Amino acid sequence: MQDAHSALDDIWRVRNAAATTLSLAEDQMRRAIRGASVAELTALIETFSPARSGGPDWTRTFEPLVERLWAWRDTETLAALAEVFRAKGMPWMAVAHALSPEHNPETAIRHPAWARMPAFAVA
Amino acid sequence: MGVIQGTATIDRLREEIQGVRYREATNTFCRLVTEEDRSLKDTIKAAIASAAPYVQVPSHLMRLPSGEMRGVNYDHTILGWRGAISLMGELGGSRGILPNIQAMWYVPQGLNVWEQVVCEFPGHYARDGEQCGRKFPGPDAEVNRFDGPAWNPPKIYFRDHAPIFGGSVDDRLGRMNWAIAEGDKAEAYGLFLGLAGEPEHRKRLKDAILFAGITDLQDTIINRGGYQNIGHKALRARALVDIADYLGWDDAHELMYTVVPDLGCSPRLYGLWTEIANICRMEIPDHAAIPKRSAKPVTERELDGLTEALLWGGPFDVNAAIMALFKRGAGVLDVGDAVVVCFQRYLIDVLEHPNAFLHPTHALDYMNVVQFWVRNFDNPHQVKAIFMGARFMNDTIRSNANFPRDPAMALEPRRNFRAWADAIPIDRILPEIKQYVLAQDAPRSCALVDSYLERTEERHDLLDTITYAACHWQNDPHVMRNGASSLEEFRHNRTSRKDDIVRGYVKHQSRYVKRAPTHDCYRVYADYFHPANG
Question: Do residues B275 and B259 share a domain?
Fold first, then answer.
């Protein structure tokens, strides 16, 4: 019983450490996103091209990234990014749509199965 | 229906098919059956024979002047017939003829694919996929000349051959499979014809041709362009077996001419087969002795784990999940059934964009060929085929997942319509399902099916309703083929989650991209066959 209790204690300690790490990473990401130029954000989003992506696991993080862009940047920046990707033509239309005001995730429908990475929360 | 001049004859049908006059050919087909008392079987045989010389291509890869390669599509005319013949027994009365009329409507549009993709012949690929009308418009801007009729006769890329006899059956089957793998179409086809003429060897011949089709499968479609076959070798082999059984093997020469040479067409892709053969040799060397069914079916927890691997894992996760099931004593069909139902969660929960259904549902159709092969034949390699099917499914899912999700294609969750569906009396639900499939309203169609499945044990009429509604859409043999696969797998599946096949099926048929917005072909069918209840 004592061992089981210790194990639970250890797992809880690990969980808290992971949450702290993620929270710090999220803070760092927020600062980096807020300080990035449109060109830098464009370069980040271009890594989601199927020809450059590290694979499906990378691409599935696109929606969490877009949620953060909407949360941390102003609508003018999002509009500028949407215009950049709309100008690239059909292959980038899904990205252009995601950056367009009508698909702001705060008001759009979220799909729980596709969005495998939920909005981050440690509370 | 306009006034049709002249007598309907088989010669006329042939001319209309080869001239890419698909509307006229469909009318002639209907008139042969309704006015000239030709049997449906004879008329289907005549249509297959008319198309047979014109469905082969030199290769499924075309070298471009730049040195790059592009894919050349596989013949789909025969896949439409296979689906239609299968669905004939599923749909009641004259409704069962509709899929055949759809198959007929497509045949003239599916000839001479090599010329279609370079805009030198009309048909479905030239008109829709290649958008040739925009690139090479005719004199009348209002008329897309790539809708037909043809201005040239279609080309023949592989002439008919004589049967090859001589040698033991084992020797000839071995030579045939080697010839297919090496791309010697003439040798493979000749040996097939020789063996097909000997009724006592047909069971082994069917097994061998299915094996040849199943083992030729790309290891990935991700960023591969044309260097893949998305299961078409297996799908053709299955079409051959089913249609020859329907027509009678002694009446199936043109069918064999349609199907067999293409099995040896390039590219032939054995990388995945080699990988799976190696891992089976290493981990389950006695795999040939694994029974088809066992007393240890797949548990709920194992189904969850397999779903996770198929939908969200990588190829090695899939290998590991399937391997674990076999190593702990599950049967071949137990695992195959599990793969089929676990895959449905992708259709049900994940897919949204109408264009994204195409490759995953090819994998489902491939898996159906595998399951059919396991159910009906005894072959020591069948365990490997289950891995192949699961890997193909996972690969198409990962291929789709390489593209960011398009929020413009988001679907409202089906649960939002559940209360609405539950309020509809059970005896009114099937007409509602038909209406919402025809409206391509996936959330409501799916909510209605969810409600129906929970309120009644009845399934036959439900599947009939979905299938019949789906068969209203023209220009697309995939509809019939996927209908045939889904219904067959539902009927044979022994897992607790077999109803998920119905849920996945209705989502597919109410969301998958359509190749025409109109129901002209259905109206031709209705004019001739007067279906009850529309």
Answer: no
- pLDDT score at A6: 75
The rounded distance, in Å, linking the Cα atoms of A109 and A107 is 7
Among residues B438, B444, B448, the alpha carbon closest in space to that of B479 is found at B438
SS3 A122: coil
Structure-token pair, residue B8: 């309907």
Cβ proximity of B415 and A111 under 8 Å = no
On the question of pLDDT at A118 being above 60, the answer is no
With helix as H, strand as E and coil as C, how does B458-516 read?
CCHHHHHHHHHHHCCCCCCHHHHHHHHHHHHHHHHCCCCCCHHHHHHHHHHHCCCCCCC
Q: How far is A102 from chain B (nearest CA, A)?
A: 9
B431 interfacial to chain A (CB closer than 8 Å)? no
Does residue A115 have a pLDDT over 80?
no
Cα–Cα distance measured from residue B176 to residue B186, given in angstroms and rounded to the nearest whole number: 10
Whether residues A108 and B410 touch (CB distance < 8 A) is answered with yes
Please indicate, yes or no, whether residues B69 and B116 belong to a single structural domain of this protein: yes
What is the domain range of residue B208? 169-263
Cβ(B415)–Cβ(B485) under 8 Å?
no
How high is the ipTM of this complex? Answer: 0.82
Give SS3 for B152: coil
**What is the C-alpha separation between A66 and A45, in angstroms, rounded?**
9
- Are B349 and A113 an interchain contact pair (Cβ–Cβ within 8 Å)? yes
> Looking at the domain assignment, is residue B480 inside a domain?
yes
Residue B363 domain-assigned (yes or no): yes
Q: How far apart are CA B81 and CA B68, in angstroms?
A: 34
Q: Which residues of chain B have pLDDT under 50?
A: 1
- At B517 the three-state DSSP class reads coil
**pLDDT value of position A1:** 55
Rounded to the nearest angstrom, the minimum Cα separation between A25 and chain B is 23
- Is residue B154 domain-resident? no
